[in-house]
Amino acid sequence: MQDNPLLRKENTHRLKAIPFNEIKLEHFMPAFEEALKLAREEVEALKNNPEPPTFENSILAMDLGGVELNYASTVYFNLLGAHSDAEFKALAQKISPMLAEFSSSIATDPKIFERVKAVYDQEVAGKAKPELPKDMNDTEAIRAAERYRMIERRYHSFIRGGALLSDTQKKRFTEIAMELSRLSPKFSDNVLNATNTFELHITDPKDVEGMPQGVLDAAEFTAKKKGKESGWLFTLQPSSVMPLLTYCQNREIREKISKAYSSRAFNDQFDNQENIKLTLALRQERAQLLGYKNHADYVLEDRMAASVTNAREFLDKIYDVAYPAALKERDEVAALAKELDGIDDLQSWDWSFYSNKLKEKLYAYDPEELRPWFKVENVIDGLFAVAKKIYGINMKQVHDVPVYHEDVTTWEAHDADGSYLGLLYIDLFPRETKRGGAWKSSLQGQGLFHDGMRRPQVMIVGSLTPSTDKSPSLLRLDEARTIFHEFGHAIHSLLADGYYTALSGTSVLWDFVELPSQIMENWLMEEEALNLFARHYETGDALPKELLDKVIAAKNFNAATANINQLRYANLDFDWHLADPATITDVNAFEKQAIARYALLPMVEGTNTSCAFAHIFAGGYAAGYYSYKWAEALEADAWSMFAENGIFDQATAQKFRKYILSRGNSFHPQELFEAFRGRPLDPTALLKRDGLI
Predict the structure, then answer these.
(1) Of 129, 141, 395, 562, which shows the fewest CB atoms inside 10 Å?
(2) pTM exceeds 0.85
(3) pLDDT (tens digit, 9 = 90+) per residue, 389-398?
(4) Which of 426, 418, 431, 484 is nearest to 457 (CA)?
(5) Catalytic residues
């Protein structure tokens, strides 16, 4: 087994980086089989430990165990999303159920739970919860609080994992976990396959009138790579779809790409409707086994929102203000479409095109103008310059770290005092082996491992505009925002200063996790930050002040519509997970009814959001999509403190680092937020920031 890089005991790389260059497909199944064998032996030793249960020999032992299994899982599932072919993906149908069964066997084992409960009774039950120390340098107090929270959360995770069920119920609980573990990658694969299958090959120049030359160059380059002798090839990657919808004057072409994108994995060879229904039924059954009415109640119990009622009341407060404003925004766009082209029936494929025309009319600028100032390398350099000014950290590119694809770059993070903070992988461009969207994930957490304390290794992944044979990668503003967002997640991990990995970095309550990522986006819209890096990729000239002013002035353009779009996703998610799955016979009919309240444009027959809604059916956002808006409210209020004191104010930045970024899940997020802000959340901060009140 020493020949298998996934099982090798010694990693000789100076940063203990994963040897991606050595790992092959055939290594995974033997690695998982051996790792599961070793992990089961550890579990048996834990169960049969004759010593009385303690934090160290029970809670901590579990946290530090399963080294080989955790390593193989980390590598496999990160590659599954970022770089995997059909053969690699097929392994998920074997690996996922094996892991689900093993995880469930631990959570439902009465002997292990007995040990966990004993520690809980000794150190947590009936004991006062440690308060947030006034001195955040009081290491002893923080460690005591982390220990308390570690025990508390481990105990409750066992209960939520089926520890109190009967033997018959435990058996069914495990079966459900195994089946759900198969459905999630299957759903994701279907979306990716549907995305990759579609191609729109255009050869008539009249059909691409209005398109920016850089977008056409990219489409021409794609056509050549796909073996086309001439013309332009557009795909369902966002970097291809969005420019076409925004600039193509041919309405029929816009309609075609819009319908194709909005019908992925719906009524085609990769149809996800049955996967949705089965997923919902299994989640509901699992929730009811545990004593909850539905999956949403099960999820929200362990969130800042605490209940579905609280979450939906929060969303409705935004809706009451945003929907009337969004209708006005819609009417303004519709009026311009009629004025310019006589269009009486504004459709979804018209929205981006005429919205952009309205933005040009109101602010005298086109977002496409910004691309030359957002060369991807400059954006990354600028992001790092901003991060250095905020937190004092230094990012240094390194070239001796093995990567899984040639597009990936690697960076070491160092603190202001020179101490090593962690390793960052950046992978930004689309390919057929990568799922769509953007995300941050961890290759190694921060905290205590079996061999001592380790610093984190994280990756940020996206599908942004790639370079062509005619120009480097030049990003849209929203793509640059995506990089800032995902780096915000990365910073949450890189600046982690916890003792236990289970509580470190982004291992926080789900509706808190987007705060560090969303607040990072704000710096991109600040003149003081943009001046650090927005340079023309050919001339080196700074972004003109006139254009910069227009960009900042337009930052709340159609903000109400953007809010309603997010509310539609959040409430669709809730409706799926509050309904009785037995009553859902028609996926599309259910969706139409769920989103009707949020409609701004006519619904389009043959399209469906849910069948490609990977966030909730293949990711971690089931009954949790609302968390984007919840965290955005936190972020808007937190950002107001930077806005008041200065966007690079060191006292504010260090306070945010101390209470939000460094502490992870060692305290309840409400305590941490209020300690940073100095008061409870201002519930109107988000609406104020978006110019809605």
Answers:
(1) 129
(2) yes
(3) 999 999 999 9
(4) 426
(5) 486
